[in-house]
Design brief:
With about 180 residues, this protein is an alpha+beta fold.
Length: about 180
């Protein structure tokens, strides 16, 4: 079992727009009701459809299957969090395959220009999935940095004291040597 799978896919938006014009039922067969509602509400629906199709391909590449092994056209879809971040939604055979691989989450990133839609997907198992409780504690990091700084200051003070003792001891020796018997 892999720890993580990575998939990337690109699609020319003009190809999606052409498919939408030529095959009106294409969108209903390929995209969920939620995806269609989201894309149709945008100014340029073809960009959003293309990004979602690229996401399907990227996710299936991350799982290592492509549209094979019984994976259906709607087994991978794109939802959105309340904040608007795209999320991968798995169902059917794609979910079965992901579960069998130990995939806990598929991180998804979508981008597009006027010409291209790009999707990146990372299928993560428990071994590589970031843990919330592993996030650094800012207060603990600050305490640790103060402790390191105090340690450095203490070491510098010890060195300074040692240098001062050496210089003062050397000065006393020079003073004794420079005195002549007459000076006593």
């Amino acid at each position: 079992m892999a720890l993580a799978g990575v998939g990337v896919d690109m699609l020319e938006i003009s190809r999606m727009a052409a498919a939408m014009r030529r095959h009106p039922n294409f969108l209903r067969r390929l995209f969920t009701d939620e995806e269609r509602a989201y894309c149709e509400a945008s100014v340029r629906p073809a960009e959003h459809y293309a990004a979602r199709f690229a996401a399907r391909e990227a996710v299936l590449k991350a799982l290592g299957t492509g549209f094979s092994q019984g994976v259906g056209l709607k087994d991978v879809s794109v939802g959105r969090t309340e904040a608007g971040r795209p999320v991968c939604l798995l169902s059917g055979r794609a979910k079965e395959i992901a579960d069998a691989q130990g995939v806990q989450e598929v991180a998804l990133s979508l981008s597009f220009t006027h010409e291209l839609a790009v999707a990146n997907a990372v299928a993560m198992t428990e071994a590589v999935r970031p843990k919330l409780d592993e996030a650094p504690d800012p207060a603990e990091e600050l305490r640790a940095s103060f402790k390191k700084a105090r340690s450095l200051i203490d070491e510098l003070e010890r060195l300074q004291d040692g240098i001062r003792d050496t210089l003062e001891g050397g000065a006393a020796v020079r003073d004794v040597r420079s005195q002549s018997p007459k000076d006593e």
